[in-house]
Fold:
Amino acid sequence: MITKRKRRTADIIGILDLQGGVYEHWDHLQRLGIQARRVKHKVDFNGLAGLIIPGGESSCMSRLLNIFEIKETLLSAYGQGMKIWGTCAGAILLAKRIVGEEACLGLIDIEIKRNSFGSQLDSFKSEALIPDVADEPVPLTFIRAPKILNAGKEVKILLKIDDYIAAAENKNILVTVFHPELTGSLAFHRYFGIKCGLQPQAVGKSFIDQQWNNSSWTRLARSV
Structure:
């Protein structure tokens, strides 16, 4: 059950650490000067301004939420003002409607279909201009991505490509079917930080961090 939303004064963004791309998100938040925390237990939700649910395997993550007994804690933290961003599998967990399946968290009024582009071999890269997020094209990485098929009237569409929605939000939830953490662009992480009421560090004229590479996140994995 979701409790009544209250104003939070937290300054940490958590990353759900059950399965999926945790360190990649952590790396991007760190580059923006945003304090981050891996979230696996109930106590980890204390003091969070926002939570990122990373890409991975949505069915597995859904089961692990129950195994670790943190689903209700997550919903309670959301009810108290914690913002949430779901990337790929995370977007599936947040959707109110999943084609052929029962919803998990059901916090944003979208209908989503998993694995809409085919197998792992059908993964691809692209880019798009998303004016609300950045004034330059944002690189997009799709890996066994879902498609958002429909969105409710209270949901703002940030990016639509052909016949599907690739990014959307409401007041408290952000969803992307692609993986911003797998590119050098800090645009979406900065956008989510601002959505959480934080003040990310300036990133210069471009949102692309030239110091980033595909293995940047491994420095964090080695430190724990």
The longest helix spans residues 22-31.
